[in-house]
Design brief:
Layout: H1 2-27, H2 30-35, E1 40-42, E2 44-48, E3 51-60, E4 65-69, E5 74-78, E6 86-87, E7 92-96, H3 99-141, H4 147-187, E8 189-191, E9 196-201, E10 208-209, E11 217-222, E12 227-234, E13 246-251, E14 254-273, E15 276-285, E16 298-304, E17 308-314, E18 319-321, E19 324-331, E20 334-339, E21 341-346, E22 349-354, E23 361-363, E24 367-369, E25 372-374
Antiparallel strand pairs: 1-23, 2-17, 3-12, 3-16, 4-11, 5-7, 5-10, 6-9, 7-8, 9-11, 12-15, 13-14, 13-16, 14-15, 17-22, 18-19, 19-20, 19-23, 21-22, 24-25
Helix pairs in contact: 3-4
Length: 375
């Protein structure tokens, strides 16, 4: 019995010794030794040369897409323009029925001719009445006529002069009507206001169009040499964008090709997309890159920001407490929770605009529980 008891004691001591040795061996392993020391990083100066990414679309520049219509109603007699045709500024792209307009022009031309003849007649009457008046004055000097006849001759002369002025005004009125008729006739011939490519045709020959508050659109002309990219930049990044910054972008039609350009404008009005505030950044496409682009192509945009040397730390060290950004700074054997102001981000790194000094060491995996630091 005593021998069994001693054997059990020896076995229990051996098991405890084996367990203690295993725990010691596990604690001496490198990964466990590192786990005992909190991971830290040092705030250091780094060069940031990050990019702002955005989704955009190819759009015509202002004035590079024109909807061509008519200012008068009528039957469309000829529409030589077809989708994809190249047209030059001033070339005819549509013609309306114009017989009535041409007749109006002829009528007003005749009215102008009549008005000119009336002027000639009025001027002749004025000359005759003036001569009669002068003769009456001469006769009055030798008592060969009466004062009444002289006065009547003067009145006739003045009336004839007024008749000339009336005839001149009638001619001006007729000429104005003629100009208006010619302008209306010109509306029957629709010409291209810009050079470009026919993008769409919405009216067919033989149809009657009615001009109202909005002119009926015949065709849409797009100048493919004046295209830009409208990129939708998040409000978080819009403050980093400056005019002239270089841009690289791709389109789905040519995924392996990089197109280049530069920032030409930043629109002041915001656009809401999926409850996110974004701003349109216009990008001027380099001349040699425009040949393959078409309006409404989707683009993936990368705006190159200028390189900056800033104080930076790993972004994963930043925590949010009480609505502010903080880090846990290691000083000696103590840890301090310090508020910071975060600037730009460049991949896994974040700029520290305020709150840290170069060389400060911070915890990377710190958490806060009930106001106490737990590592």
């Amino acid at each position: 019995m005593r021998r069994r008891t001693l054997t059990g004691v020896f076995i229990a001591v051996a098991v405890l010794a084996f367990a203690a040795g295993g725990f010691w061996f596990y604690a001496q392993r490198p990964e466990n030794a590192n786990a005992a020391v909190p991971a830290t990083a040092e705030a250091a100066m780094r060069e940031f040369s990050s990019v702002v990414t955005a989704i955009g679309a190819v759009k015509p520049q202002i004035g590079a897409e024109v909807r061509v219509g008519t200012r008068i109603s009528g039957k469309l007699m000829r529409l030589p323009a077809n989708i994809g045709d190249r047209v030059e500024r001033g070339s005819v792209i549509a013609e309306l029925e114009s017989a009535d307009l041409a007749a109006a022009v002829a009528r007003h031309e005749a009215a102008v001719a009549v008005a000119r003849e009336k002027i000639a007649d009025a001027e002749a009457r004025q000359k005759l009445s003036e001569a009669t008046y002068q003769r009456q004055l001469s006769l009055l000097k030798i008592s060969g006529t009466s004062q009444q006849l002289v006065d009547e001759a003067l009145r006739e002369s003045q009336s004839a002069a007024a008749g000339v002025q009336i005839a001149i005004r009638e001619r001006e009125f007729a000429e104005a009507q003629l100009r208006e008729a010619r302008v209306n006739l010109s509306y029957a011939t629709i010409t291209a206001p810009i050079s470009g490519v026919i993008g769409s045709v919405t009216t067919q020959e033989g149809e009657t169009v009615a001009a109202g508050l909005n002119a009926p659109t015949f065709v849409v002309i797009v100048d493919l040499d004046r295209l830009q990219v409208n990129a939708f930049v998040d409000e978080v990044d819009i403050g980093k964008i400056r005019l002239g910054q270089r841009v690289t972008f791709n389109v789905d039609a040519f995924p392996a090709q990089d197109f280049t350009g530069s920032v030409s404008a930043i629109y002041p009005s915001a656009t809401i997309q999926d409850n996110v505030v974004k701003y349109v950044v216009a990008i001027a496409v380099d001349d040699e890159e425009r040949g393959l682009l078409r309006p409404e192509m989707t683009t993936s945009v990368r705006i190159q920001l200028e390189a900056r040397t800033v104080l930076a730390i790993p972004a994963r060290a930043i925590r949010q407490e009480g609505g502010r950004s903080v880090v846990h700074v290691v000083s000696g054997g103590a840890t301090e929770v310090r508020p910071i102001r975060v600037g730009w981000r460049d991949g896994p790194w974040a700029e520290i605009a305020d709150g840290l000094n170069e060389g400060d060491r911070i915890l990377l995996n710190a958490t806060t529980t009930n106001g106490e630091l737990a590592k």
